[in-house]
Amino acid sequence: MLVLLVLSPLVLGISLQKTTSSDADHVLQGWVPNACTLVICAPTERGPKGEKGDQGLPGTQELQGPARPPAIPGPKGDKGSIGEKGPRGESNLPELEQLKTQVRDLQSELDGLKATITKTQKVLLIPSGVIVGEKVFKTDVSGGDYDTGISSCSHLGGKLASPTNAAENNALQQIVIWHNKRAILGINDMATEGKFEYLNGEVIGYSNWAQGEPNNLGNEHCVEMHLDGKWHDRACSLEWLIICEF
Ligand code: MAN
Ligand code: CA
Questions:
Q1: How far apart are the C-alpha atoms of 53 and 172, rounded to whole Å?
Q2: Any atom of ligand 1 within 6 Å of the Cβ of 221
Q3: Is the CB of 234 under 6 A from ligand 1?
Q4: In the chain, where are the structural domains located?
Q5: Whose CA is nearest to atom 12 of ligand 1?
Q6: What is the mean pLDDT for each group of 10 consecutive residues in the chain (246 residues)?
Q7: How many CB atoms lie within 10 A of CB 51?
Q8: Residue 179 Cα, ligand 1 centroid: separation in angstroms?
Q9: Where are the beta strands (DSSP E) in 56-152?
Q10: Which of 30, 81, 174, 206 has its CA 20 to 30 A from that of 132?
Q11: pTM of the entire predicted model
Q12: In what helix (H) or strand (E) does residue 176 lie, and over which residues does it extend?
């Protein structure tokens, strides 16, 4: 009984709330098993207007911008060469300044990585290859005459080495020295005596002839590099270290 007394106001309260909805009959139907008191007591006509209720709770705040992202911490690693790093973590610097610092740090990190890659490539190529500019000279340490050189380099996807400037000549000379063998170049004057050309038929734009060369001694149409990096014209049937370029 006591329980009923306690519960009835609750039931009543809930039921009254429901009756204020637009479909009171439907709602009452739904509550019939436990709300007979309400059915009996509910007036058929509207009573006088009640006073206005309390003002509702304020709505949730809207249109607030998204939460500011936390400060971006600087990347790990050594201090770059460009200035001191800013404070890590919660910095008061404007976001743009933080980004600029990050870009600088990344740039110096990238420079470091590039240098490491270059060095690694260089070390891995020794003693059979050298990188110079965009070009790579490499030997598989095979030997042969001019025709063999042409075909074996082509087979490997390259060309017989043809230095086109002093830097390339020095790089090629390095391999010649490492192997202590003269190398055959991708240069000849087979088409016209004395007119040396690259393999594509273009007249050479750079040369490093030894003193007195080319002398065509006994009909020499090929070119070899000696250990001092100097060139000599030689008979194409001789054998040399084959160095290709890629
Ligand atoms: C031969 C000739 C010379 C050349 C030497 C190189 O004597 O081809 O021109 O300089 O060989 O050993
Ligand atoms: Ca010669």
A1: 96
A2: no
A3: yes
A4: 1-43, 127-245
A5: 232
A6: 38 37 38 39 44 45 41 46 52 86 98 97 98 98 98 98 98 98 98 98 98 98 98 98 98
A7: 5
A8: 20
A9: 129-132, 135-144
A10: 81
A11: 0.64
A12: helix 166-179
